Amino acid sequence: MAPGQTLTRAARHLEPTFFPRPFYQAFRQFDNKKFHTTARTKGYAQADAPSGTNSRQLSPEQQSFLDSALRVNQAGELAATLIYNAQTPPIVERYPHLRPLMKHMYDQEAGHFSTFNALMAKHRVRPTAMYPIWQVAASFLGWSTGMMGREAAMACTEAVETEIGTHYNDQIRELFKWMQEFQESGEEMEPELKELMDTLKRIRDEELEHLDHAVENDAKEAQPYEPLTNIIRYGCRGAIWISQRI
Questions:
Q1: How many beta carbons lie within 10 A of that of residue 121, not counting itself?
Q2: Which of 169, 189, 212, 211 is nearest to 73 (CA)?
Q3: How open is the CA angle 243-235-165, to the nearest 5 degrees?
Q4: Sign of torsion, CA 100 72 20 192?
Q5: Tens-digit pLDDT profile for residues 210-235
Q6: DSSP code, position 42
């Protein structure tokens, strides 16, 4: 079965399905907002800020970090939806009892993807130029591990979520460090950034839930386990590094 055929069948297995649209459709409407703190003297930041707050504007380095974080997160969640889309048909055909689990994980990833699409559009962050390549790579990874069997598909989930969980933790730690710096200087973090940190925590926890599901469903029984998971993990690290920069 070819990858394209698998993706076509996935829509029937995951009704109602959410198949990611091309990125240029997701970013047709932008406003002029960027992540900010309440120190801005003009625009909606001042209007939204509580009276009497003492805050400062994000530095260029901090703004660059946030832009990069959203770009990578959106690309990663796109890849996750495509992996599950491609894995599901061969897996549920041989293991029908896994249909609810596959749909549950897919639906959560689709929700994550939608969240980052909205944040990218709101804050005018460009998507990675590697978007089309990640689409093909993720679809192939999902199809190939799905065809290898349940254990390989779950090993793929374990490997991906291990890297993604670490990636989200790094972002959360960075935002928490900013919050501490603001507090130490008598300033306040913009509520929008606090909301982003809470969103990242929620998504991280759901990703780690997927990792637990994978281990519970014999991910470590995949053959060959070590080479397969190492290749996927290194691939994820490489994709993250590239997407942060391109």
A1: 16
A2: 169
A3: 75
A4: positive
A5: 999 999 888 988 899 989 999 999 99
A6: S
For 8, half-sphere exposure in the C-beta direction (CA atoms, 13 angstrom radius) is 5
User: For the chain, what is the mean pLDDT?
Assistant: 78
Q: Which residues contact 7 (CB under 8 A, 6 or more apart)?
A: 82, 85, 86, 139, 143
Q: How far is CA 219 from the centre of its chain?
A: 21
Q: How far apart are the first and last CA of the chain?
A: 33
Task: Give the predicted TM-score (pTM) of the model.
Answer: 0.75
Is the pLDDT assigned to residue 89 strictly greater than 90? yes
Contact 246, 130 (CB under 8 A): yes
- Six token digits for residue 90: 């061969």
The answer to whether residues 9 and 84 touch, using CB atoms and an 8 Å cutoff, is no
192 Cβ contact partners less than 8 Å away, ≥ 6 residues apart: 35, 36
Q: Give every CB contact of residue 213 below 8 A, 6+ residues apart in sequence.
A: 101, 105, 154, 157
